[in-house]
Design brief:
Creatine Kinase, Chain A, domain 2; about 375 residues; globular; 8 helices; alpha+beta; single chain; 2 domains; Ubiquitin-like (UB roll); eight-stranded mixed sheet
């Protein structure tokens, strides 16, 4: 895979060097890449467009887009609103340029669009803020050629050697696409995202990066920005980043988005971890049906998964729905890993569901019984 520069030079056009900005009078303008999630089904995708911001602008403005072109509106009422919720440095353009994660609002009302899953996540996070839930999300993905074949597989037909040497491997023939991974990691660090690690995965051409540990909104916003950066970097290599649950049929691992979670109680009490796992087992369908498209193809009970319609948890068990790491069992405190979410999952939905299920079962319940009325008046005389 021949390396290409991140900035493509177009003949006849002057491309600004990184850190160089156009002048408007005495003001310096910069670029803000507005990123949002569209309404495509069954798996929404990322969209973005560039807004020029005048230097000195204190608050990022709302913006609009054509929702009829993103499966979020009809042509007769096509306008939708982009409301900035998170911003960071743009490591590709450099300088003062920024990346802006946005939520989508309905133009006529200003309320969250039906495709806006962040709004409910924000409500739930606020409701259970006292439990201080944090997450670490492991995003797996597969690098694909433009013809739909995974990197590491023969270009037109056939398969490579079976799984075994590729996981955390090193060396030609074992690892494919490391250039993209290295650039992506550096870009996430430069952007200030909470990236905490990367590794080659079990299937050739498959990789993983981790975001966290931070709260529900932060981990979800940052994961989407990290996904956008990955797609954008791979674009310059003519590589497609697939988040499909089962990108290659057969005896090959699928791609997940394991979600590690921990409340304040779990970080000091093993019983709270056990209670959290039991709580997740009471809402199997609610979780699995919102953990990403085609989850049945991945959660089969094989390839380090539990069946999608059953729930199990255990220490150090990668064949369970939820794994408790051995170190956590030893320390009697820490976190648990929900191994069910797909690579194509919506982090706002997944973190919101875990919050609701785990924190909801431990929240103090208000009593519905009526209190005994206070006695009034003089005390009755004791019978002699």
């Amino acid at each position: 895979m021949a390396e290409k520069p991140l900035s493509v030079k177009l003949s006849g056009l002057r491309i600004l060097r990184r850190g160089e900005f156009p002048m408007r009078g005495n003001l310096m303008a910069y670029q803000a890449e507005y990123i949002w999630i569209d309404g495509v089904t069954p798996t929404p995708t990322l969209r973005s467009k560039t807004k020029i911001i005048e230097n000195g602008t204190k608050a990022l403005p709302i913006w609009g887009f054509d929702g009829s072109s993103t499966s979020q509106a009809t042509g007769e009422a096509s306008d939708c609103i982009l409301n900035p919720v998170f911003s960071c440095k743009d490591p590709i353009r450099g300088g003062k340029n920024i990346l802006v994660m946005c939520e989508v609002l309905v133009a006529s009302t200003g309320k969250p669009h039906p495709t806006n899953t962040r709004a409910l996540c924000a409500e739930t996070a606020k409701r259970y803020a006292d439990q201080k839930m944090i997450y670490g999300i492991e995003q797996e993905y597969t690098m694909m050629r433009l013809n739909g074949r995974p990197f590491g597989f023969p270009e037109l037909s056939g398969e490579p050697a079976p799984q075994g040497p590729y996981y955390c491997g090193v060396g030609a023939g074992r690892v494919m696409g490391r250039e993209i991974v290295e650039i992506h990691t550096e870009m996430c660090l430069e952007a200030g995202l909470h990236i905490s690690g990367t590794n080659a995965e079990v299937m050739p051409g498959q990789w993983e990066f981790q975001i966290g540990p931070v709260g529900a909104l932060a981990v979800s916003d940052e994961l989407h920005v990290a996904r956008w950066l990955l797609h954008r970097i791979a674009e310059d290599y003519d590589v497609v980043i697939s988040l499909d649950a089962k990108p290659q049929k057969g005896d090959w691992n699928g791609a997940g988005c394991h979600t590690n979670f921990s409340t304040k109680a779990m970080r000091s009490n093993y019983k709270a971890i056990d209670d959290a796992c039991k709580a997740l087992g009471t809402r199997i369908n609610e979780h699995v049906s919102n953990y990403g498209h085609d989850i049945e193809s991945r959660l089969t009970g094989k390839h380090e998964t539990a069946p999608y319609n059953k729930f199990t948890y255990g220490v150090s068990n990668r064949g369970a729905s939820v794994r408790i790491p051995w170190q956590v069992a030893k320390d009697q405190k820490g976190y648990a890993e929900d191994r069910r979410p797909n690579a194509n999952m919506d982090p706002y939905l997944v973190t919101q569901l875990i919050l609701e299920t785990v924190c909801g079962q431990s929240a103090p319940k208000k009593s519905t019984s009526k209190k005994a009325p206070k006695k009034t008046g003089a005390k009755k005389a004791k019978k002699k």
